[in-house]
Amino acid sequence: MLLLNRLVFCKLARVFGNGRVAMKRLIGALMLAFAGLLASPTLAQFTVLDHAQDGGAAIGTEDAAQPAPLCGSRTVSIARVGWPSAQLLAEIHARILAKAFGCTVWVMQADLAAIGSTMSTTGEPAVAPEMWPNRIAELWNAGVNAQMLRAAAPSYGQAQLEGWFIPDYVAQAQPQLTAASGLAAALPAIAGGGRVRLISCPPDWACALINRNLVRAYGLSGLVDVVEPANRLEMDTLIAQAVSSREPVVFYYWQPNAILAQLDFTALDMGAYDAEAAKCLARAGCADPKPSAFAPETVVVAISEWLATDVPVVAGYFRRSSLPVEAMSGLLAQLNEPGASVESVADRFVAEREDIWRNWVGAGSP
Protein backbone atom coordinates (compact mmCIF):
# COMPACT_ATOMS: atom_id res chain seq x y z
CA MET A 1 0.00 0.00 0.00
CA LEU A 2 1.26 3.49 -0.90
CA LEU A 3 1.23 5.73 2.19
CA LEU A 4 1.46 9.52 2.06
CA ASN A 5 2.20 11.53 5.16
CA ARG A 6 0.52 14.85 5.81
CA LEU A 7 3.48 16.91 4.54
CA VAL A 8 3.61 15.12 1.19
CA PHE A 9 -0.16 15.32 0.77
CA CYS A 10 -0.17 19.04 1.50
CA LYS A 11 2.66 19.59 -1.00
CA LEU A 12 0.69 17.74 -3.69
CA ALA A 13 -2.43 19.71 -2.80
CA ARG A 14 -0.53 22.96 -3.34
CA VAL A 15 0.55 21.70 -6.79
CA PHE A 16 -2.98 20.78 -7.87
CA GLY A 17 -4.89 23.56 -6.10
CA ASN A 18 -8.12 23.60 -4.12
CA GLY A 19 -11.67 22.68 -4.95
CA ARG A 20 -13.51 19.60 -6.14
CA VAL A 21 -12.02 19.54 -9.65
CA ALA A 22 -8.52 20.01 -8.30
CA MET A 23 -9.04 17.17 -5.84
CA LYS A 24 -10.13 14.92 -8.71
CA ARG A 25 -6.89 15.74 -10.48
CA LEU A 26 -4.91 15.05 -7.31
CA ILE A 27 -6.64 11.70 -6.86
CA GLY A 28 -5.96 10.91 -10.51
CA ALA A 29 -2.29 11.69 -10.09
CA LEU A 30 -2.13 9.41 -7.06
CA MET A 31 -3.89 6.66 -9.03
CA LEU A 32 -1.33 7.08 -11.79
CA ALA A 33 1.51 6.94 -9.31
CA PHE A 34 0.16 3.81 -7.69
CA ALA A 35 -0.37 2.16 -11.10
CA GLY A 36 3.23 2.98 -11.96
CA LEU A 37 4.39 1.34 -8.75
CA LEU A 38 2.44 -1.82 -9.50
CA ALA A 39 4.11 -2.01 -12.91
CA SER A 40 7.58 -1.35 -11.50
CA PRO A 41 9.96 -3.67 -9.67
CA THR A 42 10.98 -1.04 -7.09
CA LEU A 43 9.40 1.91 -5.33
CA ALA A 44 12.27 4.08 -6.53
CA GLN A 45 10.95 3.95 -10.08
CA PHE A 46 8.08 6.31 -9.18
CA THR A 47 9.71 9.70 -8.89
CA VAL A 48 8.72 13.30 -9.30
CA LEU A 49 11.38 14.34 -11.79
CA ASP A 50 11.45 18.01 -10.88
CA HIS A 51 15.24 18.48 -10.72
CA ALA A 52 14.93 19.73 -7.13
CA GLN A 53 16.19 18.36 -3.85
CA ASP A 54 14.47 18.26 -0.45
CA GLY A 55 11.29 20.00 -1.48
CA GLY A 56 12.87 22.50 -3.86
CA ALA A 57 11.04 24.16 -6.72
CA ALA A 58 9.85 22.19 -9.73
CA ILE A 59 11.11 22.89 -13.24
CA GLY A 60 10.38 26.46 -14.25
CA THR A 61 8.99 27.69 -10.93
CA GLU A 62 8.95 31.49 -11.21
CA ASP A 63 10.13 33.94 -8.59
CA ALA A 64 7.16 35.57 -6.86
CA ALA A 65 8.25 39.03 -8.04
CA GLN A 66 8.14 38.07 -11.69
CA PRO A 67 5.00 38.22 -13.89
CA ALA A 68 2.72 35.20 -13.96
CA PRO A 69 3.80 32.65 -16.57
CA LEU A 70 1.94 32.42 -19.85
CA CYS A 71 0.73 28.98 -18.84
CA GLY A 72 -0.82 30.30 -15.64
CA SER A 73 -0.16 29.09 -12.12
CA ARG A 74 -1.31 25.50 -12.56
CA THR A 75 1.32 22.78 -12.77
CA VAL A 76 1.55 21.01 -16.14
CA SER A 77 2.07 17.31 -15.51
CA ILE A 78 3.82 15.34 -18.27
CA ALA A 79 3.83 11.55 -18.47
CA ARG A 80 7.18 9.79 -18.78
CA VAL A 81 6.51 6.20 -19.80
CA GLY A 82 8.98 3.37 -19.88
CA TRP A 83 10.63 3.40 -23.31
CA PRO A 84 13.46 5.74 -24.35
CA SER A 85 11.76 7.81 -27.05
CA ALA A 86 8.80 8.65 -24.79
CA GLN A 87 11.14 9.47 -21.91
CA LEU A 88 13.14 11.81 -24.11
CA LEU A 89 10.02 13.61 -25.34
CA ALA A 90 8.76 14.08 -21.79
CA GLU A 91 12.03 15.64 -20.63
CA ILE A 92 12.42 17.77 -23.76
CA HIS A 93 8.91 19.23 -23.49
CA ALA A 94 9.37 19.88 -19.77
CA ARG A 95 12.48 21.94 -20.44
CA ILE A 96 10.97 23.92 -23.30
CA LEU A 97 7.76 24.73 -21.42
CA ALA A 98 9.87 26.03 -18.54
CA LYS A 99 12.27 27.92 -20.80
CA ALA A 100 9.82 29.45 -23.25
CA PHE A 101 6.67 29.90 -21.16
CA GLY A 102 7.86 29.89 -17.54
CA CYS A 103 5.68 26.89 -16.74
CA THR A 104 5.91 24.83 -13.59
CA VAL A 105 6.20 21.25 -14.84
CA TRP A 106 5.87 17.90 -13.10
CA VAL A 107 7.33 14.96 -15.03
CA MET A 108 5.76 11.79 -13.67
CA GLN A 109 6.56 8.19 -14.49
CA ALA A 110 3.85 5.63 -15.26
CA ASP A 111 2.80 3.05 -17.83
CA LEU A 112 0.68 3.52 -20.96
CA ALA A 113 -2.52 1.93 -19.64
CA ALA A 114 -2.37 3.93 -16.41
CA ILE A 115 -2.02 7.16 -18.35
CA GLY A 116 -4.97 6.30 -20.56
CA SER A 117 -7.10 5.56 -17.51
CA THR A 118 -6.29 8.67 -15.47
CA MET A 119 -6.32 11.09 -18.41
CA SER A 120 -9.74 9.73 -19.36
CA THR A 121 -11.20 10.17 -15.86
CA THR A 122 -9.31 12.96 -14.07
CA GLY A 123 -7.42 14.89 -16.76
CA GLU A 124 -4.04 14.02 -15.26
CA PRO A 125 -1.36 13.88 -16.46
CA ALA A 126 -1.99 16.91 -18.64
CA VAL A 127 0.28 15.66 -21.44
CA ALA A 128 1.39 12.29 -22.80
CA PRO A 129 3.99 13.10 -25.50
CA GLU A 130 4.01 9.64 -27.08
CA MET A 131 0.56 8.08 -26.85
CA TRP A 132 -0.32 4.97 -28.87
CA PRO A 133 -4.14 5.07 -29.00
CA ASN A 134 -4.50 1.76 -30.85
CA ARG A 135 -2.73 -0.05 -28.00
CA ILE A 136 -5.32 1.19 -25.46
CA ALA A 137 -8.25 1.81 -27.80
CA GLU A 138 -11.01 1.30 -25.23
CA LEU A 139 -9.49 3.72 -22.72
CA TRP A 140 -8.61 6.23 -25.41
CA ASN A 141 -12.06 6.22 -27.00
CA ALA A 142 -13.69 6.56 -23.58
CA GLY A 143 -11.58 9.62 -22.80
CA VAL A 144 -12.27 11.26 -26.15
CA ASN A 145 -16.00 10.57 -25.91
CA ALA A 146 -16.06 11.99 -22.39
CA GLN A 147 -14.24 15.11 -23.66
CA MET A 148 -11.41 14.55 -21.18
CA LEU A 149 -8.52 14.26 -23.64
CA ARG A 150 -7.65 14.84 -27.27
CA ALA A 151 -4.82 14.36 -29.79
CA ALA A 152 -2.86 17.59 -30.21
CA ALA A 153 -0.51 16.46 -33.01
CA PRO A 154 1.33 13.40 -34.30
CA SER A 155 4.35 12.72 -32.10
CA TYR A 156 6.45 12.25 -35.24
CA GLY A 157 6.45 13.74 -38.69
CA GLN A 158 5.33 10.53 -40.37
CA ALA A 159 3.02 7.62 -39.62
CA GLN A 160 4.86 5.01 -41.71
CA LEU A 161 7.35 3.67 -39.17
CA GLU A 162 8.15 0.16 -40.49
CA GLY A 163 9.75 -0.85 -43.75
CA TRP A 164 12.73 -2.19 -45.69
CA PHE A 165 16.08 -0.41 -45.87
CA ILE A 166 19.32 -0.62 -47.84
CA PRO A 167 22.76 0.72 -46.83
CA ASP A 168 23.85 3.99 -48.40
CA TYR A 169 26.60 2.29 -50.44
CA VAL A 170 23.97 0.12 -52.13
CA ALA A 171 21.80 3.17 -52.77
CA GLN A 172 24.76 5.02 -54.30
CA ALA A 173 25.69 2.06 -56.52
CA GLN A 174 22.06 1.63 -57.64
CA PRO A 175 20.54 5.14 -57.69
CA GLN A 176 17.50 3.84 -59.53
CA LEU A 177 16.67 1.57 -56.58
CA THR A 178 14.30 3.71 -54.52
CA ALA A 179 11.39 1.34 -53.95
CA ALA A 180 10.88 -2.24 -52.84
CA SER A 181 9.16 -2.87 -56.16
CA GLY A 182 12.52 -2.28 -57.90
CA LEU A 183 14.42 -4.95 -55.98
CA ALA A 184 13.69 -7.76 -58.45
CA ALA A 185 15.38 -5.83 -61.26
CA ALA A 186 18.27 -4.48 -59.19
CA LEU A 187 19.32 -7.44 -57.03
CA PRO A 188 21.02 -9.57 -59.73
CA ALA A 189 23.45 -6.75 -60.47
CA ILE A 190 23.95 -5.99 -56.78
CA ALA A 191 24.73 -9.58 -55.87
CA GLY A 192 26.76 -10.43 -58.95
CA GLY A 193 24.40 -13.21 -59.90
CA GLY A 194 24.15 -14.62 -56.36
CA ARG A 195 21.55 -14.16 -53.66
CA VAL A 196 21.24 -11.24 -51.28
CA ARG A 197 20.45 -11.59 -47.61
CA LEU A 198 17.23 -9.98 -46.41
CA ILE A 199 17.58 -9.60 -42.66
CA SER A 200 14.10 -9.85 -41.21
CA CYS A 201 12.98 -9.81 -37.57
CA PRO A 202 12.76 -12.67 -35.00
CA PRO A 203 10.48 -15.50 -36.16
CA ASP A 204 7.99 -15.04 -33.31
CA TRP A 205 7.38 -11.39 -34.26
CA ALA A 206 4.44 -10.57 -36.55
CA CYS A 207 6.76 -8.76 -38.97
CA ALA A 208 8.59 -12.02 -39.77
CA LEU A 209 5.51 -13.53 -41.41
CA ILE A 210 4.73 -10.28 -43.21
CA ASN A 211 8.27 -10.09 -44.56
CA ARG A 212 8.17 -13.67 -45.84
CA ASN A 213 4.92 -12.94 -47.68
CA LEU A 214 6.29 -9.65 -49.04
CA VAL A 215 9.26 -11.52 -50.51
CA ARG A 216 6.77 -13.59 -52.49
CA ALA A 217 4.64 -10.56 -53.36
CA TYR A 218 7.66 -8.74 -54.86
CA GLY A 219 8.88 -11.84 -56.75
CA LEU A 220 12.09 -12.15 -54.72
CA SER A 221 11.94 -15.80 -53.68
CA GLY A 222 14.84 -16.81 -55.92
CA LEU A 223 16.86 -13.67 -55.25
CA VAL A 224 17.07 -13.34 -51.47
CA ASP A 225 17.86 -15.50 -48.46
CA VAL A 226 15.57 -14.47 -45.63
CA VAL A 227 17.43 -14.41 -42.31
CA GLU A 228 15.35 -14.35 -39.11
CA PRO A 229 17.55 -13.53 -36.09
CA ALA A 230 16.74 -15.06 -32.72
CA ASN A 231 16.27 -11.73 -30.97
CA ARG A 232 16.67 -7.96 -31.25
CA LEU A 233 20.34 -8.03 -30.24
CA GLU A 234 21.20 -10.56 -32.93
CA MET A 235 19.20 -8.55 -35.44
CA ASP A 236 21.24 -5.41 -34.74
CA THR A 237 24.48 -7.40 -34.79
CA LEU A 238 23.73 -8.96 -38.17
CA ILE A 239 22.93 -5.57 -39.69
CA ALA A 240 26.06 -3.95 -38.24
CA GLN A 241 28.27 -6.78 -39.45
CA ALA A 242 26.79 -6.64 -42.95
CA VAL A 243 27.38 -2.90 -43.16
CA SER A 244 30.89 -3.20 -41.75
CA SER A 245 31.80 -5.64 -44.51
CA ARG A 246 29.89 -3.58 -47.11
CA GLU A 247 27.68 -6.50 -47.93
CA PRO A 248 24.82 -5.87 -50.38
CA VAL A 249 22.02 -6.42 -47.92
CA VAL A 250 18.35 -5.52 -47.49
CA PHE A 251 16.83 -5.42 -44.02
CA TYR A 252 13.62 -4.77 -42.14
CA TYR A 253 13.51 -2.17 -39.38
CA TRP A 254 11.30 0.44 -37.73
CA GLN A 255 11.62 4.07 -36.74
CA PRO A 256 12.60 5.88 -34.63
CA ASN A 257 15.64 3.80 -33.77
CA ALA A 258 19.25 4.44 -32.84
CA ILE A 259 20.79 2.11 -35.41
CA LEU A 260 19.25 4.09 -38.26
CA ALA A 261 21.11 7.17 -37.04
CA GLN A 262 24.37 5.41 -36.20
CA LEU A 263 24.68 3.88 -39.67
CA ASP A 264 23.69 5.43 -43.00
CA PHE A 265 20.66 3.80 -44.60
CA THR A 266 18.04 4.58 -47.20
CA ALA A 267 14.41 3.64 -46.71
CA LEU A 268 12.82 1.89 -49.65
CA ASP A 269 9.41 3.12 -50.75
CA MET A 270 7.01 0.33 -49.81
CA GLY A 271 4.15 1.80 -51.86
CA ALA A 272 0.69 2.54 -50.56
CA TYR A 273 -0.91 0.75 -47.66
CA ASP A 274 -3.57 -1.69 -48.92
CA ALA A 275 -5.74 -2.93 -46.05
CA GLU A 276 -6.96 -6.04 -47.87
CA ALA A 277 -3.49 -7.00 -49.06
CA ALA A 278 -2.14 -6.40 -45.55
CA LYS A 279 -4.65 -8.86 -44.09
CA CYS A 280 -3.36 -11.59 -46.39
CA LEU A 281 0.28 -10.68 -45.73
CA ALA A 282 -0.34 -11.26 -42.02
CA ARG A 283 -1.62 -14.83 -42.59
CA ALA A 284 0.58 -17.92 -42.79
CA GLY A 285 -1.66 -19.36 -45.49
CA CYS A 286 -1.72 -16.31 -47.77
CA ALA A 287 -2.10 -17.98 -51.19
CA ASP A 288 -1.55 -14.93 -53.40
CA PRO A 289 0.28 -12.17 -51.52
CA LYS A 290 0.13 -8.67 -52.97
CA PRO A 291 2.48 -5.78 -52.13
CA SER A 292 1.50 -3.33 -49.44
CA ALA A 293 3.24 -0.95 -47.10
CA PHE A 294 3.23 -1.85 -43.44
CA ALA A 295 0.25 -0.51 -41.54
CA PRO A 296 0.70 3.12 -40.48
CA GLU A 297 0.98 3.73 -36.75
CA THR A 298 -1.05 6.29 -34.86
CA VAL A 299 1.30 7.93 -32.35
CA VAL A 300 0.12 11.25 -30.95
CA VAL A 301 0.83 13.94 -28.39
CA ALA A 302 -2.19 13.56 -26.11
CA ILE A 303 -3.34 16.48 -23.99
CA SER A 304 -6.08 16.77 -21.40
CA GLU A 305 -9.15 18.78 -22.31
CA TRP A 306 -8.54 21.24 -19.48
CA LEU A 307 -5.13 22.08 -20.93
CA ALA A 308 -6.62 22.62 -24.37
CA THR A 309 -9.30 24.99 -23.06
CA ASP A 310 -7.63 26.68 -20.06
CA VAL A 311 -4.06 27.10 -21.33
CA PRO A 312 -4.37 27.78 -25.08
CA VAL A 313 -0.77 28.97 -25.47
CA VAL A 314 0.56 25.62 -24.25
CA ALA A 315 -2.05 23.70 -26.24
CA GLY A 316 -0.90 25.59 -29.34
CA TYR A 317 2.68 24.61 -28.59
CA PHE A 318 1.76 20.93 -28.50
CA ARG A 319 -0.27 21.24 -31.72
CA ARG A 320 2.99 22.24 -33.43
CA SER A 321 5.26 19.77 -31.64
CA SER A 322 5.67 16.92 -34.16
CA LEU A 323 9.31 15.80 -34.19
CA PRO A 324 10.94 14.53 -37.40
CA VAL A 325 11.39 10.81 -36.89
CA GLU A 326 15.02 11.08 -38.07
CA ALA A 327 15.68 13.57 -35.26
CA MET A 328 14.40 11.10 -32.66
CA SER A 329 16.60 8.37 -34.14
CA GLY A 330 19.53 10.72 -33.66
CA LEU A 331 18.55 11.36 -30.04
CA LEU A 332 18.35 7.62 -29.40
CA ALA A 333 21.83 7.25 -30.87
CA GLN A 334 23.09 9.95 -28.48
CA LEU A 335 21.50 8.04 -25.62
CA ASN A 336 23.76 5.08 -26.45
CA GLU A 337 26.90 7.18 -26.00
CA PRO A 338 29.00 6.50 -22.86
CA GLY A 339 27.74 8.42 -19.85
CA ALA A 340 24.60 9.69 -21.59
CA SER A 341 21.27 9.90 -19.80
CA VAL A 342 17.76 10.84 -20.86
CA GLU A 343 18.18 14.13 -19.03
CA SER A 344 21.54 15.00 -20.61
CA VAL A 345 20.29 14.19 -24.12
CA ALA A 346 17.20 16.36 -23.50
CA ASP A 347 19.43 19.21 -22.32
CA ARG A 348 21.55 18.84 -25.45
CA PHE A 349 18.49 18.91 -27.71
CA VAL A 350 17.20 22.13 -26.15
CA ALA A 351 20.64 23.72 -26.39
CA GLU A 352 21.46 22.62 -29.95
CA ARG A 353 18.19 22.11 -31.85
CA GLU A 354 16.32 25.38 -31.50
CA ASP A 355 15.89 25.11 -35.28
CA ILE A 356 13.32 22.42 -34.49
CA TRP A 357 11.70 23.47 -31.23
CA ARG A 358 11.45 27.19 -31.99
CA ASN A 359 8.72 26.28 -34.50
CA TRP A 360 6.85 24.51 -31.71
CA VAL A 361 6.98 27.59 -29.50
CA GLY A 362 5.68 29.79 -32.30
CA ALA A 363 6.73 33.16 -33.65
CA GLY A 364 4.51 35.11 -31.27
CA SER A 365 5.90 33.53 -28.12
CA PRO A 366 8.93 34.64 -26.12
Q: State the name of the first-level CATH class of the largest domain.
A: Alpha Beta
Helix/sheet category: alpha/beta
Helix/strand order, N-terminal first = HHEHEHEHEEHHEHEHEHEHEHHHHH
Shape: globular
Walk me through what this model shows.
The chain is α/β, with parallel strands linked by helices. The chain has two domains: 6-157 and 298-361, D-Maltodextrin-Binding Protein, domain 2 (3-Layer(aba) Sandwich); 162-281, 3-Layer(aba) Sandwich (D-Maltodextrin-Binding Protein, domain 2). The protein is built from 16 helices and ten strands. Helix 4 runs parallel beside helix 5. The longest helix is centred in the N-terminal third of the chain and has 19 residues, at 20-38. Residues 1-16 and 29-64 have low confidence and may be disordered.
Main attributes of the structure:
3-stranded antiparallel β-sheet; 2 domains; 5-stranded mixed β-sheet; D-Maltodextrin-Binding Protein, domain 2; disordered N terminus; alpha/beta; 13% strand
Sequence-ordered SSE layout with sheet pairings:
Layout: H1 6-16, H2 20-38, E1 76-80, H3 84-101, E2 105-109, H4 112-121, E3 127-131, H5 137-145, E4 149-154, E5 162-167, H6 168-173, H7 183-191, E6 196-199, H8 206-217, E7 224-227, H9 232-244, E8 249-254, H10 258-262, E9 265-267, H11 275-281, E10 300-304, H12 305-310, H13 312-319, H14 325-335, H15 342-352, H16 354-361
Parallel strand pairs: 1-2, 6-7, 6-8
Antiparallel strand pairs: 3-10, 4-10, 5-8, 5-9
Could you write a compact summary of the structure shown?
The chain is 45% helix and 13% strand.
